Amino acid sequence: MRRILLIVVMLLLPVTSAMAVQVAITADVNAATHLHDGVKHKTVTIGYTATVDVRAFSLDINVDNGCNIGDSNLTGYKTGESIEPAQGGTKGYGIFPGRFRDSINPTTPNWSEPNYSPLTPLNSPGALNTGLGLPKIVVELGTLYKGDPNKPALSGNLFTFDVNSEGKSDCNMTVAVNALRGGIVDNNGVAITDTNLPFTKKVTFDCFYEGKVDGKGHVVTAAEVAMWNSPLVNKAACWCYQCHPRGDVDNGCTITSVDVLAARNAWPNSPIFGAYNPCSDIDYSGTITSVDILAVRNAWPNSPIFGPGCTGLVGGCP
User: What is the average pLDDT across 283-297?
Assistant: First the structure.
């Protein structure tokens, strides 16, 4: 029996080894949703981890469900040759084959040329109908270096971009190799096929974000977003309700005694000593105070107050 188990283990070893990829592409989605030109955005950073030296990357990045790649340029990428910092440069992938011919003079290269970026030129082979402001981009990054000290590290970030929601919901982002433009190649110009591509990652847009105009016309601040993300509030969905800033604690779209009592019972002052309830936190402060109690009371559309309630609120509830 022991001999059989040993044979089984020996047979499994090569299989386990073969499962390890030589190049893994990473896509880190920033946790914070931000507003740009009135549209919700999420920032994505594309990176890599390799066990072999990579000479170039050519990648397709797609988003679905009505999302687009942000219309501002890519950021966070290196330009120019890979040079050891001790020699006055930086290491990385700063040679962009698709744009090198059109934007760079090899004799006196200007690596700050604004048109020089990892984006493949519009309507190039393998990159038809792609570009910023569309659901798909094609990028290609390579490296030139002399001597091993100047070669890029085996891991790092390649570039950063935004995904925007265009007012729609969450979407999926897919990263794949662009084989027509070379894919991922090693120092010998041979395609590396042992990768983690393609893969798909969810891009989720928060409902409460800096710059959002809430149901009372208040512009949400960075500090309020930080509070929403804190363990105390724990991204409570009620802060996203359109009627919440008008005193609607239970998302009933009307202000009733239920809301008044919920606010009262969350008030941590004498004589009640209630437990903090984020849905009763009308002003996003992280505490329940008289400000919140009065907000609910003054919105209650019953006698003797006749408050505004949620009537006339554009966008409904939530």
Answer: 87
Residues 6+ apart with CB under 8 A from 276: 232, 266, 268, 287, 288
On the 0-12 / 13-18 / 19+ scale of CB atoms within 10 A, 207 is middle
Distance of CA 195 to the CA centre of its chain: 23
Say how far apart CA 114 and CA 131 lie, in whole Å. Answer: 16
Our count of domains for the chain comes to 2
Long-range contacts of range 250-257, CB-CB < 8 Å, 24 or more positions apart? 250/279, 251/279, 251/317, 251/318, 253/310, 253/316, 253/317, 254/301, 254/309, 254/310, 255/296, 255/299, 255/300, 255/301, 255/307, 255/309, 255/310, 256/300, 256/302, 257/300, 257/302
Q: Contact, 163 vs 68, CB < 8 A?
A: yes
161-184 pLDDT tens trace: 999 987 667 999 999 999 999 999
pTM: 0.78
CATH of the domain at 9: 2.60.40.680
Domain assignment present for 268: yes
In a domain, 245, yes or no: yes
Which of 203, 236, 254 terminates a domain? The answer is: 203
Size (the chain), residues: 318
